[in-house]
Amino acid sequence: MPSRKFADGEVVMGRWPGSVLYYEVQVTSYDDVAHLYTVKYKDGTELALKESDIRSQSSFKHRKSQSSSSSPSRRSSSRSRSRSRSPGRPAKGRRRSASQSREHKDDKKKTIQETSLALPVLVLFKPSENNTKRYNGEPESTEKNDTSCIILEQKLKPDLEIKRVLEQYSLRSRKDEKKKEEIYSEKKIFATVKTVEKVPSKTKELEFGGRIGTFMLIFLLPATVFYLLLTCKQDDPSLMSFPPLPAFESLWEGRVFGVFLLWFSLQAVFYLLPIGKVVEGLPLPNGRKLQYRINGFYAFILTSAAIGILLYFQVELHYLYDHFMQFAVSAAAFSLALSIYLYVRSLKAPEEELAPGGNSGYFIYDFFTGHELNPRIGSFDLKYFCELRPGLIGWVVINLAMLLAEMKIHHLSMPSLSMILVNSFQLLYVVDALWNEEAILTTMDITHDGFGFMLAFGDLVWVPFVYSLQAFYLVGHPNAISWPVAAAITVLNCIGYYIFRSANSQKNNFRRNPADPKFANLKFIPTATGKGLLVTGWWGFVRHPNYLGDIIMALAWSLPCGFNHILPYFYMIYFICLLVHREARDEHHCKQKYGLAWERYCQRVPYRIFPYIY
């Protein structure tokens, strides 16, 4: 085992991660297992550094004194020899001149090496005092305080000391100096601080079981939806009993498909209305930012008004319940056709517009995960539209149709308490998503995943028809609950919603304005990317507190259905599996992106979703 080189309390020069800049730091501890030094900068920032990133102060002083004393003398002696030289000199003099010329080249080469080590000391940049361990809220990352960007822009302009040193030692030609000025322009510095990602390369690590797994999921996902809906219609909805298959002709009806197309078109019209603010998304791999119109909540209000008009004219909404399977088949057929269109158009998309996770070169895999990151028809963003509009708002409409169907079938003057709870809880969830629509722009669905069969089928089929399973179940299998039980379930849902919303709000608000005084007590671990990993607040409690809130709410949605069958709890079980998969993907992504900083974060926050359990 190699022995440590620097002792605790020793003042050394530590390299700032992701740069060539060295600053004065103090060694606070040493990890014998990971062989990492924990060092503390003058502003209080603590980082874990490798031994190769630490140098003694004496080595910097020695190199600076060498570069300041020896180089000028070498240049002056070279100039004097150059002036005394003449064409009539003997051959010996010329040989000595060639030897001196070689020495001068070696000295110049050495000077470049020495200056490259001395430059970080000359550049007067240090981590901002205001960024002391604050972060936007989630382990996935956020931008540093804008004060750091201002300091960086001011201190790295071309007229700084670094340019004077480079000119003094003649280390670059005029052409190279011009390039240097461009690099250190404010635009370039800002782009460097923001850490714009590179153009995506081929996807090497395949998810979902690779090509074979994605091929099977293309058939397994629709089959699962149809199986759940058929089982839910049975008198004994047991998952162990396979329901009888209906006639193929009964699964398709042209009128139902027309209603679905009308619904999709109506939501598209609401999306295109010039209402709501326009915001920019996160930078794309090519540095460009797309614009999005935030009007999902307005679309929900307009949809509610349209439904109210239909009810006023006594249009039977329980038509949805009577033809529920046909609607699911229509949505599945439409999502398949949309997926084929998306893949065909992605073949002509530029390389920088392809999805980082769907550019494997394998047809089936890229078709499933999505080959193009943000497919658009003009300003109409197909992925962003489908993410919240047709499926999520359709989920609420389906729940309402189930409530009306329950009242009609069971001759009730008002819906059952169980149905009211399910509708209310899920309505709150949908309204919250639409009200906080801007937050979806930072999710992996938008920033990382392409738009292919997985998201198209998930948004248009899985969300509206599987998430409404509890309401569909209660129509044919009513479950009476008492008011105290209803109150307890309501409290449970409120707890889950509070964790979910406060954790996400902490993340999103801090991302927009990290200098807000209400976040002054939040601490984070700095990373080499210029971002941070929060270790206080909800994100210091578990690594994914929003997932914890999601699971608690999913349980509250299922409890009103009772315990006679496990079918109503399928959504909760599926949701846990989905979140565990997402959590594992997030862990892998963050470990690759943040390296040692992520390992330190995991040590500080050991629990992933469930405190003291997982």
From TrEMBL:
The keyword Kinase does not apply. Residues 101-112 have a biased composition (Basic and acidic residues). Residues 4-62 form the Tudor domain. It catalyses: 5alpha-cholest-8,14-dien-3beta-ol + NADPH + H(+) = 5alpha-cholest-8-en-3beta-ol + NADP(+); 4,4-dimethyl-8,14-cholestadien-3beta-ol + NADPH + H(+) = 4,4-dimethyl-5alpha-cholest-8-en-3beta-ol + NADP(+); 4,4-dimethyl-5alpha-cholesta-8,24-dien-3beta-ol + NADP(+) = 4,4-dimethyl-5alpha-cholesta-8,14,24-trien-3beta-ol + NADPH + H(+). It comes from the Eukaryota. Signal peptide: none annotated. One of its GO terms (biological process) is cholesterol biosynthetic process. Pathway: Steroid biosynthesis; cholesterol biosynthesis. SUPFAM superfamilies: Tudor/PWWP/MBT. Residues 66-75 have a biased composition (Low complexity). It holds the Pfam family LBR_tudor. Residues 76-97 have a biased composition (Basic residues). It is a multi-pass membrane protein. Keywords: Cholesterol biosynthesis, Cholesterol metabolism, Cytoplasm, DNA-binding, Endoplasmic reticulum, Lipid biosynthesis, Lipid metabolism, Membrane, Nucleus, Oxidoreductase, Phosphoprotein, Receptor, Steroid biosynthesis, Steroid metabolism, Sterol biosynthesis, Sterol metabolism, Transmembrane, Transmembrane helix. This is Delta(14)-sterol reductase LBR. It comes from Atrichornis clamosus. The gene is Lbr.
